[in-house]
Amino acid sequence: MTLSGWIQIGLLFTLILACTKPLGLYLYTIYENKTPSKLRLSFEKKVFKLCGITIEGQTWKNYFFSLFLFNIMGLYIVFIIQLFQNYLPLNPQNLPSVPWDLALNTAVSFATHTNWQAYGGETVISYFTQMAGLTWQNFSAAATGMAAFFALARGITRHAKNEDDITVGNFWVDLIRSILYVFLPGCFILALLFVSQGVIQNLSATLEIVTLEGAKQSLAMGPVASQEAIKLLGTNGGGFFNANSAHPFENPTPFSNFMQILSLVLIPAALTYTYGKIAKKSKHGWSLLAAMILMSLISVSLIYHFESQSSPLFSHLPVHQGMGNMEGKEVRFGISGASMFSNFATGTSGGPANAMYDSFMPLGGMILLINMLLGEVIFGGVGMGLFGMLMFVIISVFIAGLMVGRTPEYLGKKIEGKEVRFAILYVALYPLIILLGTAWSILAPYGLSSLQNVGPHGLSEILYAYTSATQNNGSAFAGLNANTYWYNITLALAMFIGRFVPIYLGFAIAGSMVNKKIVFTSSGTFPTQGFLFVMLLVGVILIVGALTFFPALALGPFIESVDLLQGKTF
Amino acid sequence: MIKKEIIIAVKLSFLTLFLTGLIYPLLVTGISSFLFPKKSQGSLIYDERQKVIGSELIGQNFKKPSYFFPRPSAAGNGYDGAASGGSNLGPTSKVLVKRVEERIQEIKKDNPELIPIDLLTASGSGLDPHITPRAAKWQAMRIAAQRGVSLRRILTLVDNLTEPPQFHIWGEPRINVLKLNLSLDQFFGPPAVSP
User: Fold this and answer.
1) Option in B35, B61, B71 nearest A215 (CB)
2) Which residue among A146, A291, B93, B161 is least crowded, i.e. fewest CB within 10 A of its CB?
């Protein structure tokens, strides 16, 4: 670990803090401002009219129906585009049609905001599919996440003047606003910034060249920067190339690396401020951000520490290991650049990679797993991160209520059996799918045959795959060959359930809270801000995550770590 | 109501596909080829006959002892720019240890210094264009002997081509292997053709 590394980490957190309020305010005016400017209003009206949208509130069920419908439609179109990409334009490499199981997995993966990639970008997917299929779905899925969050936030915080009003906003309006005012302008600027650093953006065919030494080399090309921008700003994470952000054409300089990390976190962090504003309790918003930053700081420090270790397996060799674990890492980023990136790639539900996580030290890789297993709430995805965090807030408030023996309240509304039941279902759903999928795969020959690494690391590979899919993260221990019928189909299922069932459960809470009577806060009300609240919230998140997955982590990364110290190999 | 929603979903799907999947990437392509004509095309390096000999950003698989070696690569058969990727070998992998041992055999020869770890490990992309200054200096003796020039001149070249952290804040000090080898040829002439 170096001073320069810590300075970079410190700078990153400082910038996150500095951007939270201005960006949070901007998001508030986009989604919640009742009197938008005339220019914006007239522009929006044209779009709404074109699509036949009437601006009226939807109940949580109708909101969910629209959301689901739009995403299924996207899934279907991307599936079709892949099957017929050999007939479509912008395919200079004449890539063939994508096999159906891989196409299905990819379509589900991008529609569910996961961006799990069982394919290698440059060898399987045409430029048209990358742009009109995957880049488009990156925008849609990110915008869907934003919409889902605002629907939940409105349901929880609404002080209804009219008790019959049980609407939580309009999905189509939220979706269009997310794309038009947040992601498109942001990505446009970011894409040009990336090109200025060396990220490529062209439609040329793969370049065949002769190197300085006289050998042949192929250089894959493509419209990379435009996809790169939404991949990060929308916390999607699906790279253009197989090596994702480790590829020098996707992430050429240490500065582009830093900007990529920052753009992953910007919106999820800013939403905490937006939420505080919606709830008219800005301290509550800051407290949620504090909980996220606290957990993130701990995990980034641990990753940095573990990855700076030298491997005991090389200690008898004439090797200078001062840098740390460089297998799978790029020299220009160093250990600190890879640690920061991997921490935010797994803490947010983005899941891009500027290093190969499979080659991380046992405990370094475990922190990445834990970042996801905790429910993608350490910043989390755009919208969905705070969405998940609010489920944990409801559980925390409920537990605090149990401790003092009072009916718990949250933002002036009573939290009753119904809400707690949905919140518990929400957090219990993930372990169920993750552990079931992992257990089945390690018992079946078709599950084990995909492993590249054996021994305890093999278990980690499979556990990582189901965790990443179910939590809609998309990063991988990529040694696992996931392009088989078994993994393509079961992981697609895990992604699908892990995306839409939790949104449904969260919306059910929104629907049940939207027209609840306001109770006045008294001295018995548990404060949802300040040190005590942050600690309780972090405690609840850690206990739920740690207790559920401790056995699996003990069998995977922990044992592997002990094996490594003893010099055992597999 | 359901029918109306389906119509909206179809219309909006095609509208957003058109806007974010076609207009946006094509607009970025157009503007960036105007603003950054070199970088948007891959920061290519040309020789005096205007033939592309590589990209500043993509490493090449130098094997001749008169050139600086890059890091090992897991991309295709080594530095395949159309098949990026890492080894994905776990920390307790037998294959990893064996590969590192073989690589040491291959490059150590009679160099008494400890080999820097980046020369023994594959990068994440398999296309890493850089090595650390330590890894370049470790090879300087061999290059000097192969090219018949003084060690001091090679070390000066290494120092001159070492890039500091970007804006003195971000990343690590590093050397671009292709640029380094290009300057070797430029200053000391191309390597003798092996018999």
Assistant:
1) B61
2) B161
Residues B134 and B59 in one domain: yes
Q: Which residues of A touch B64 (CB under 8 A)?
A: 213
Reported as a single tens digit per residue, the pLDDT across B132-186 is 999 999 999 999 999 999 999 999 999 999 999 999 899 999 999 999 999 999 9
Chain A environment of B41 (Cβ under 8 Å):
200, 202, 204, 221
Task: Residue A199: count other Cβ atoms within 10 Å of its Cβ.
Answer: 33
Domain extents in chain A: 3-203+219-565
Long-range contacts of A20-25 (CB under 8 A, 24+ apart): A20/A269, A20/A270, A20/A272, A20/A273, A20/A289, A21/A270, A21/A273, A23/A266, A23/A267, A23/A269, A23/A270, A23/A273, A24/A270, A24/A271, A24/A272, A24/A273, A24/A274, A24/A276, A24/A277, A24/A285, A25/A273, A25/A274, A25/A277
Query: Is residue B78 pLDDT above 70, yes or no?
Result: yes
Domain count of the fold of chain B: 2
Q: Is the pLDDT of residue B195 over 60?
A: no
E strands, chain B, are: 44-46, 52-55, 115-116, 130-131, 175-176
The label of the residue with tokens 């996207």 reads: A74
Nearest to B13 among A70, A456, A570 (CB): A70
Task: Say if residue B16 is in the same domain as residue B61.
Answer: no
Contact A338, A307 (CB under 8 A): yes
Core vs surface per residue A426-449: b (16+ CB within 10 A) or e: bbebbbebbbebbeebbeeeebee
Q: With beta carbons less than 8 A apart as the criterion, state whether A261 and A271 touch.
A: no
The rounded distance, in Å, linking the Cα atoms of A349 and A279 is 25
- Domain carrying residue B33: 1-41
Contact predicate A88/B28, CB 8 Å? no
The one-letter code for the residue type at A172 is W
Contact A430/A471 with Cβ under 8 angstroms?
yes
Shared-domain flag, residues B81 and B129: yes
Torsion angles phi and psi, residue A181, rounded to 5 = -105, -15
- ipTM summary value: 0.95
Indicate if the alpha-carbon torsion angle A251, A256, A258, A262 is positive or negative.
Answer: negative
Q: Is A422 helix (H, G, I), strand (E, B) or coil?
A: helix
Give B166's Cβ-side CA count (13 Å radius).
Answer: 17
Same domain, B125 and B36: no
A459-482 as b/e: b if 16+ CB within 10 A:
bbbbbbbbbbbbbbbbbbbbbbeb
Span of A29-33, A135-139, A287-291, A304-308 with lowest mean pLDDT: A29-33
- On whether both B156 and B116 belong to a single domain, the answer is yes
pTM for this model (two decimals): 0.95
Residues of B in contact with A460 (CB under 8 A): 90
Residue of B nearest to A198 (CA): B39
The reply to whether B70 and B160 lie within a common domain is: yes
CB pairs under 8 A between A and B: 382
Closest residue, chain A, to B13 (C-alpha): A74
B20 & B50 share domain: no
